[in-house]
């Protein structure tokens, strides 16, 4: 093993240690980052016996909250209500159950520094209260409310359309506000690093990627996503590709996680164009209140096109430092940041 490889590994270990110390100092989320402004995170505490951490999966928090609220509202004494009121209430709670078990929730794309409600997001995903309105009053009504109150808390919606629906719904306005979750932000991440091709040389690598909060079905993904990778090789050669990555597993909330990735890469090497497929195994470590993420990875370039023209070393070790695009502001203002996971 060369002195450069040893130096690279030592740097990765040091970065992991720093990230772990940062994490241990700030183990849980801020009080201002709760899932609901009325109930806070009591649903998560009663279900799992602890506060949610920054690495807790977003969909798990939302499902836990909505399941808890459904159970809470079903336990309310409505014995003095009319049969019609009871029927409407029961129907809405059945709709709420169908909504949270389906697990398709909106995302907060516009407020990177905090959790906020979102009635209908830019991809058409609707919130829980919006879904109840959609199913009983129509999508058009839900979209009109979204136009006026997309990121508003329900108790702040002074809107006759909202109040009129609530009056005949079988729920109170406060109960609707108890249902309404807040959503964490999602932001692109930039990574820059130095890589080393065994039997070749160092080169510079640049990536911009975004994490996907969901994967497929009910599988709760924490560090999945895709992005664009660009490598500047020696002698003015370069390669570029689209990287897809997915978390392998996680031990509770430990801030170092293994991630596998695959990247179809097109390259220009000595005036020849070709293609490789690069499978990678990454170790990703991150801090609780730091926007910085460290990536240590090993990859191997499998030749697809013009295999004899890519004379650089195919074994690839790299260390990258990543930063969320909203991270600089939060780093200097010391605000609570969105978790990785």
Structure description:
- The structure is a single chain.
- This protein folds into 2 domains: 3-26 and 186-333, Porin (Beta Barrel), CATH 2.40.160; 35-179, no CATH class.
- 32% of the residues lie in helices and 27% in strands.
- It is built from 9 helices and 9 strands.
- It has an 8-stranded antiparallel β-barrel.
- A hairpin with a 4-residue loop joins strand 1 (188-197) and strand 2 (202-212).
- Helix 2 (42-48) packs across helix 3 (58-74) and helix 3 packs antiparallel against helix 4.
- It is elongated, with a radius of gyration of 24 Å.
How helix-rich are the residues, as a percent range? Answer: 25-40%
Low-confidence stretches: 3-31, 212-221, 326-341
CATH topology of the largest domain: Porin
What top-tier CATH class of the largest domain fits best?
Mainly Beta
- Distance between the terminal alpha carbons, to the nearest Å? 33 Å
Mean pLDDT rating: 78
Number of beta-strand segments: 9
Q: Hey, roughly how much beta strand do the residues contain?
A: 25-35%
* Oligomeric assembly: single chain
Q: What is the structural class?
A: alpha+beta
Number of domain units: 2
Any idea what the shape is? Answer: elongated
How many DSSP helices? 9
| Architecture per CATH nomenclature, i.e. the level-2 architecture of the largest domain | Beta Barrel
* Sheet having the most strands: 8 strands, antiparallel, barrel
Radius of gyration: 24 Å
């Amino acid at each position: 093993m060369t002195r450069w490889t040893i130096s690279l590994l030592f740097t990765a270990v040091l970065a992991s240690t720093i990230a772990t110390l940062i994490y241990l100092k700030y183990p849980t989320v801020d009080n201002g980052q709760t899932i609901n402004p009325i109930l806070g995170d009591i649903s998560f505490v009663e279900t799992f016996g602890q506060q949610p951490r920054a690495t807790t999966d977003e969909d798990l928090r939302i499902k836990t909250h909505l399941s808890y609220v459904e159970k809470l509202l079903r336990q309310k004494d409505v014995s003095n209500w009319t049969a019609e009121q009871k029927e409407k209430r029961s129907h809405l709670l059945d709709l709420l159950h169908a909504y949270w078990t389906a697990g398709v929730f909106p995302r907060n794309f516009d407020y990177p520094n905090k959790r906020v409600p979102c009635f209908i997001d830019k991809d058409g995903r609707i919130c829980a209260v919006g879904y109840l309105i959609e199913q009983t009053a129509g999508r058009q009504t839900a979209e009109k409310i979204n136009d006026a109150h997309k990121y508003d808390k329900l108790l702040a919606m002074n809107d006759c359309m909202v109040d009129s629906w609530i009056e005949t719904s079988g729920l109170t306005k406060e109960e609707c506000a108890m249902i309404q979750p807040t959503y964490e932000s999602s932001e692109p991440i930039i990574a820059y690093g130095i890589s080393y091709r065994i039997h070749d040389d160092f080169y510079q690598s640049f990536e911009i990627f975004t994490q996907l909060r969901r994967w497929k079905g009910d599988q709760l993904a924490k560090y999945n996503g895709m992005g664009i990778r660009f490598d500047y090789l020696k002698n003015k050669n370069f390669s570029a590709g689209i990287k897809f990555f997915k978390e392998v597993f996680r031990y509770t909330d430990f801030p170092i996680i293994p991630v596998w990735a695959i990247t179809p890469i097109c390259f220009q090497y000595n005036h020849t164009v070709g293609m490789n497929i690069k499978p990678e195994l990454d170790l990703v470590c991150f801090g609780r209140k730091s926007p910085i993420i460290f990536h240590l990875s090993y990859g191997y370039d499998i030749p697809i096109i013009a295999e004899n023209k890519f004379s650089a070393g195919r074994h690839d070790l790299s260390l990258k430092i990543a930063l969320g695009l909203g991270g600089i502001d939060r780093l200097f203002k010391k605000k609570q940041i969105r978790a990785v996971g």
